[in-house]
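Minimal example, chain plus NAP.
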Amino acid sequence: MRVTIFGASGLLGKALMREWREDTVTGLRSSDADIRDAERVRQAVQKTSPGWIVLAAAYTDVDGCESNPDLAFAVNRDGAINVATAARLVGARLVFLSSDYVFDGRKTTPYETDDTRNPQSVYGRTKAEAEIKLQELMPDCCIVRTSWLFGMDGKCFPDTILKLAANRPAIDVVNDQRGCPTYALDLARAIVRLCRKNASGIVHVTNAGDCTWFEFAEEIVQGAGLTTTVRPASSQHMSRPAHRPAYSVLSPSRLKGFGLEMPSWHDALQRYLEQRQLTS
Ligand SMILES: NC(=O)c1ccc[n+]([C@@H]2O[C@H](COP(=O)([O-])OP(=O)(O)OC[C@H]3O[C@@H](n4cnc5c(N)ncnc54)[C@H](OP(=O)(O)O)[C@@H]3O)[C@@H](O)[C@H]2O)c1
C-alpha cells in the first residue's frame, strides 16, 4: 500500500513516519505542499498516488487562531477540502485529524462521536467546519478526533512542565479543564490499524483515562523525580485568548468497535519519560 502523510514534520506526523512500516510512505511538510494551494496538493497526491492519505497538517496554535482566523480557516478547513478533493481524484481514502475542541465542554460524561458539535474557539470552529465539509465531499472518510497530544518530536505539555519544573520551586497549573492526554506514538499506531481495518466515519482516539492539566502536571513532575510543587489554579486566573472546554473527555466506544484499545495515559506518560531520558 502507498500512503501519503500531510504534516509529516509535526508531532504526530513524525510519529507516523516512524511507526508506519511495511508500506510505502511519503511524508510531506508545508514546504513540499502547502495545503492552502489546491493545485500543489493535487500534484503531490497524483505524484504519490496513495491508497491512503493522512491529513495531520494543521494550524495548531489554538490562541494564534483567535488572532488569525483567516489563516486558521484557510489551513484547517479549506486546506482539508483541498486534500479531500485531491484524494477523490485518485480514489484514495482519507484520515483527517480533528479535535476535542469541536465540543463546548458542558457535558460531564464522555463525548460520543455523534454528540452535537458546538465549538467555542476559532480553532474548534475550523475543525468542526472541516469535518462537516469532508463528510459531504467524502462520506467514507475517517475522522480521528484526538486531544492533549504529547510526544518526543516537538513542543508539548509534558516538555513545557519539565522545563519549568527544572527552574522553579513551584508551578501553577489549571485544575478546571478535564480531558484525555494522548501519546503521539500510540495515536500513530492506532491510525495505522484503523487504515488496515478500512475504518470510516468519526472515531475518538486518545489514551485511556482522563485527568485535569494539574493532575497531568503532578504526575509528570513525580514521574521525572523532581521535587517542584505543583499548585492547582483556575482558568480564570490564567486567562488565555482561546476558550478551552472545561470537559472534553472523548468516549472510545467506536474505537473499541474496531477491536482497538488504547493504553492508559499513565502508562503512556511513563514510556514518554523513559524515552526522554534515553535521548537526553
Ligand atoms: N496537538 C494537540 O494537542 C492536538 C489535539 C487535537 C488534535 N490535534 C490535531 O492533530 C493533528 C496533528 O497535530 P500536531 O500537534 O502533530 O501538529 P504540529 O506538531 O503543530 O504540526 C503541524 C504540521 O502541519 C504542517 N502545516 C502547517 N501549516 C501547513 C500548511 N499550510 N500546509 C501544509 N502543512 C502545514 C506543519 O508543517 P511544517 O512544520 O513543515 O510547516 C506540521 O507538519 C492536527 O490536525 C491537529 O489539529 C492536535
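The two ends are 35 Å apart (CA to CA). Residues 69-90 form the longest helix (22 residues).
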